[in-house]
Amino acid sequence: MDEQPIPKITQDGKDGDEEIGYIANMKDSATAGFKYFDCQEIRKVKIKVRGYCHGVFEVKTSWNGAILAKIPVGFTNVWTEYSSDIVIPDGIHALYFRYTGNGSASLASFTLE
């Protein structure tokens, strides 16, 4: 049986080092969810990604909800910021980032503006 790594929270370096944590091994259809944010007048979303990947991160406010933004990402071995316009309705929402595409992406952070 061919074992596929699953997404996991990790960091570069060892425990105790001041390194950022990130979600590694996000492959096609992997989804990371974050709860809850008081969204007011959000018009842009930014993500910081690296990896051997070529695809898109879809942003939603519910697991099976409508796609509010698509953020194309590409191969890079350094953390790179990508962004997209988005309209998130005012209110308290969860956020879901779903990767679709080839390869394996690592997601370090997101910013709402």
What does this molecule look like?
The chain is an all-beta fold. It has strands at 8-11, 21-26, 31-39, 42-60, 69-73, 76-88, 91-112. The N and C termini lie far apart (44 Å). Helix content is 0%, strand content 69%. The model has no long low-confidence stretch (mean pLDDT 93). The protein contains no helices and 7 strands.
Q: Radius of gyration over alpha carbons? A: 14 Å
SSE pattern, N- to C-terminal: EEEEEEE
What is the average of the pLDDT values? 93
- Overall structural class, as computed from helix and strand content, comes to mainly beta
Number of helices: 0
Q: How does the major sheet shape up?
A: 7 strands, antiparallel
Shape, principal axes of CA atoms:
globular
Low-confidence stretches: none
Q: Count of DSSP E strands?
A: 7
- Could you estimate the helical fraction of the residues in percent? under 10%
Topology:
Elements: E1 8-11, E2 21-26, E3 31-39, E4 42-60, E5 69-73, E6 76-88, E7 91-112
Antiparallel strand pairs: 1-2, 2-7, 3-7, 4-5, 4-6, 4-7
